[in-house]
Amino acid sequence: MIRTRTLLSDGSRLRGLRPLALPTLWGAVAVTWKLGCPLAQQPGLPMRIATSVLFFSVGTGLILGIRRGLSRELERMRAIAHATQRVLLRPPPPRLDGLSVAAGQLSASRGATVGGDLYEAVATPYGVRVVIGDVRGHGLAALGAVVAVLGSFREAAHDEPELGGVLRRLDRALARHLRERAREEHPAACAGREPEHPAAEEFVTLLLLEIGEDGEVYALNCGHPGPYRIGRRVEAVPVGDPLPPLGTFPLPADLAPYRCTRLLPGEALFLHTDGAEDARDGAGRFFGLEAVLSEAVLTEAARDAPLSPAALVRRVHTALLRHTRGRLADDVALLVVRNDRMRVPAQPAEPGLRRTRPEPSPHC
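^ that's the sequence the OP posted. Answer follows.
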């Protein structure tokens, strides 16, 4: 197995050197011609010009070959990074237990599609559970905390019957990640003992939701912005008193979810990280997220056609990039959940079971 990997690695290196083969051959011929050909030894301006042109051609070929090889390697690494990032922050399924779901993210780090924001939605026996969060900082440096929290959520959402139990699992996973990172960064200080405060500067704000079959929405909020409910109008949804962000202080003993709203058929929840509302333009003006959502509702009402969650995410992304001219200061994650469950009308009783009042007798 090891020998096979070695051969594959050697083959990859040889393929990477292929663009340099022809320029190298030209160079060998040029040096041989210069040193071994009597004609090339003759003095005079024409011969010097010919020699200069020859070696200039060889140098140009080498530069172009190196550039071509580096470009191919860069494209390959970008493709691998993009695939890895999509596995980490995978798009949610478009349908979850009667709910339509769409999500998207904009990274503040150039060339990255995933940063310090996270989101996920899963259908469980206890309802559809949704998480959205923001790791302190942005870009690739925050990916470790994103991996820890998302990995724990994807397991705990199915295992824990109570929403508070899910949150405690996320808190333990993040604390474990911070301890391991502290040991790697400061092995001498942590030798033989647990670090007292692994990474005081890293924490995660997070919003955890559970949407039941009847549309009731329960929330646990760890210092994260609340969602907007989109129906006939746009309104901010209260999510209760905030808990401390994960990674800062211990969670309280009582983690009772807050009943924040009821999502009726056709209504949607718009979840976001603070990078959306905190985005500014060149003049320092904040992005009007609620105004953009209200405009989308008016457009939907005017054309009498429902705006899909994916179209709403694209609309807000476009407005954000236009407002900031493509220069985001923080990562932005958006997630939309719309209740597409049909309301079942009341059914009339069967004729055989219907109670009818008897007609009066003509003798009465």
